Amino acid sequence: MPEKIRFLSQEEQEEQETFEALKKEGGILYREEIDPKTNEVKRFVNILGVEVETYASKEDIEAIKKEIVLSKTDQKILRIIAECYKLRQPLLLEGDPGTGKTFLMKKFVQLIHGKEAPILEIVGTPRTSELEILGHWAPASKERESRDPVVQDTIRRYDQLEAEYQKANDEFDAEYKKIMDEKKEGKITQEEANKRLEELLKWYKPLQERYASELQSLMQRTTLTGKVEWEFKEGALLQAYSGREGRGYILIVDEFNLIPSNYQQIFLQIGGEKGALSDSISFWGNTGKTRYARGKDTWICFASNYPEKTPGRNEVVAPMTDRLVWITITPEEVEKKKEVLRRTAGRRLKKRLKEFTPLVTEIVFVPVEKGLAWHEVLDEQLGEQIADIVDLFDQEFVKIYQEFGDKITKEGGRRTQQFEFSVRNPLRVFDYLDHFQVRNPKTGRIDFAQTLKNAFELYYIRRLVSQEVRERMREFLQELLEPKNMEAIRKSEEIVKAGGQKLPLGAVIFEDKIGSRIVSRKELLDILVERASMTEEERKRLKREELEYAKSEAENAIISALENPHIPEKIKERLRGINLREIQL
Amino acid sequence: MATKLSSENQKELNQFFKVIEKVAAPSDSRSRRMIYDLGLIIFEPNSSLRANDIYSLFPPGKARLFLLNDKHEYESFLKELVIANREGQWFLVDCQADPSPTIITVLKQISEDNAFTVSHFEGQELFRMDLNPKTRIIFCIDSDFLEKEITYPFFMNIFGPVIRI
Q: What backbone torsions phi and psi does residue A281 show, to the nearest 5 degrees?
């Protein structure tokens, strides 16, 4: 049968043009537009299909493009970085050293803030503390040059206080690690570990309070002399939230799992609504509680290595894992990247390099700008269907993860990295649907099955290291959306007799003008999208058709009843009195 | 000035300095940008050499020596690094204390980007500086100290050429 000719809408044409331009420009595209209200030039950069506002100039973008060569794995990672930035969802990339996690994060920051923009970064070490993360009060830098004995004495006492505090912190870290290691090795029970942690905190908390109080007292006394100026040196997290005159920065936290657990927990504050960054963070300084509101450009991305594979690594604290979009770059993906480098002689074989690094259509897609919105059509049958699918997938993911675990290598045991699963991932999926809906190229309508697959890949499947478990989850998703044996399910007498009670997860009963029938969840999504995409006129026509159909079905039923010799004449008399033709639809 | 350096040590060190001066490598497998390496000189347990002996090999004004002997210290380190960088001098660090997290961050940034960014420096909220093409950074450290006192487990990875004397 010849294929149907379909004319593209204006919006689809623009999407295709953008995709073609991205292909031509190596996946990164610069665009300017004049704001009609302010007459100001607005700059945008499209990174592998995700368009975001940028402060970088066209020249900067071109220069950065020349510095990067994107293998398939790099395309995946960079696209994920761009998606999470757009949604302001904090991201963690986990993988072996040399995977290019930090490199791609830094290139992304340059694409947004310009080639020479300063990059706010913390490299985690076992000695990283709240001083680097949140900040601290200290005599102003210029005071160190002063010859005044009062100032010199203040600095000496300040340094002494800091050293004592650091010593206490080091002792805390060492003891904390010891308890955790003993628990991991099975030498002590969880209960014993909790008891020892409690005792440790009993010792540590008063020290913290004494430090804060002595520092405050030193500040007050010396400020009163009028000779010593103090300044609060904001740490990286506070700067990321409120720096750049309130606009905020992108913060890169490298080697996150080298940071001691008690300081990793400082970052718990970044978890906000819908799995995105919190609107503000609070800091108890020596002058009381201060709220730092999130700037419009604030975003945080983390990098870490597998704790199981690299000595010296801690795990990321479990409550933190849930606050981040956790992306694992598998050893297989890294190997593919290395292969590109080897087979292009370290990028020297230019022609081959082009062949090895084409833009991958499944990764680089242009999302629909004005998709179907919750407040318009999704808050109905279509939205309910999506919510059901998310719920079923989320439950199955957690079940499979807890039952079978995850493995870095085929031979390797379960991961020591613990994960927490709350409701943040489903909420992230719902937010994703607002921004990254994809189109079915055949029909031109929104393809929610594919959009959901993309979202589940980002928030669930890519969290796993094991290819085997990843495949298992993909297969489950496929069965949830389009069961393989759909025809058999439709024909199954048992299911029909049970009135849909025994339907598999991927099938549902749907009623429309044709009547009641069994459809796959994907088919149902497509039907509901088709309806949601209709104009008002088309919707009215469909309603009319459905009523006409119902009327004709009723007529047939009456005719068949009248022809049935077993139906008493009295009833037939009543039925003859019904004139469906007179009913106006 | 009398020197504890044997002629063999001198030869090795000269070669080491030449490598640091001339050889540049891409910062990352995908980058086209060339980055000069940081160098690490490790004094073997039986060595009587000190960072001062290394410093004395440089012509006057060519290098700057910084003694890192406080594990909480980073401000003076940054000030000296910035001066060396502005003057196009080599920056020699006599590492006798575990470098603070801020110093580790700066070193790692330089090794990856040939530039570094620090907060609240010279009156700027974020201060960024490219490494002067003439400047190179070399850490001198005792073998024992490196093994036992350095807490950052990937300290060695920051450096390109490493020499044990």
A: -130, 155
> Which residue out of B112, B126, B128 would a mutagenesis test of the A interface target, given it has the greatest number of A Cβ atoms within 10 Å?
B126
Contact yes or no for A446/A371 (Cβ under 8 A): yes
**Would the CA dihedral through A314, A319, A323, A325 be positive or negative?**
positive
ipTM for this model: 0.89
Contact B101 A346 (CB under 8 A): no
A21 touches chain B (CB under 8 A): no
Strand partners, A253: A122, A302
Q: Which of A73, A78, A125, A336 is the mutation pick for testing B, counting most B CBs within 10 A?
A: A125
Residue of B84, B118, B115 whose CA lies nearest to B100: B118
Say what the pTM is.
0.85
Cβ pair A421, A322 in contact under 8 A: yes
User: On the CB side of A528, how many CA atoms lie within 13 Å of its CA?
Assistant: 22
Q: Confirm whether B21 is domain-assigned.
A: no
A53 touches A39 (CB < 8 A): no
Chain B stretch 17-76, residues whose beta carbon is closer than 8 A to a beta carbon of chain A: 27-33, 71-72, 75
Q: Is residue B69 part of a domain?
A: yes
Q: Which residue of A has its CA nearest to B98?
A: A127
Residue among A501, A460, A477 at smallest CA distance from A389: A477
The distance of A244 to chain B (nearest Cα, Å) reads 8
Highest mean pLDDT (candidates A137-141, A248-252, A282-286): A248-252
Cα-flanking dihedrals φ and ψ of residue A513, to 5°? Answer: -60, -30
Domain tally, chain B: 1
Residue contact A141–B120, C-beta within 8 A: yes
Q: Nearest-CA distance from B101 to chain A in Å?
A: 6
pLDDT tens for each residue of A461-504: 999 988 889 999 999 999 999 999 998 888 887 776 766 677 88
> In three state form, how does the secondary structure of A420-482 look?
CCCCHHHHHHHHHHHHCCCECCCCCCECHHHHHHHHHHHHCHHHCCCHHHHHHHHHHHHHHHC
Q: What are the phi and psi torsion angles at A533 (to 5°)?
A: -85, -5
Q: Is A122 an interface residue toward B (CB < 8 Å)? A: yes
B51-83 per-position pLDDT tens digit: 999 999 999 999 999 999 988 889 899 999 999
CATH number at residue B88: 3.40.50.300
Chain length of chain B: 165
Subunit contact A128:B126, Cβ cutoff 8 A: no
The percent of residues above 70 in pLDDT, for chain A, comes to 95
pLDDT score at A208: 79
Q: CA of B157, closest CA in chain A: separation in Å?
A: 10
What residue in A sits closest to B107 (Cα-Cα)?
A123
Cβ atoms of B57 and B13 closer than 8 Å:
yes
- Cα maximum dimension of chain B: 48
| Residue B89 counted as domain residue | yes
The answer to whether residue B120 is domain-embedded is: yes
**B chain contacts of residue A357, beta-carbon cutoff 8 Å:** none
Its domain, for residue B47, covers 37-164
Chain B touched by A46 (CB under 8 Å): no
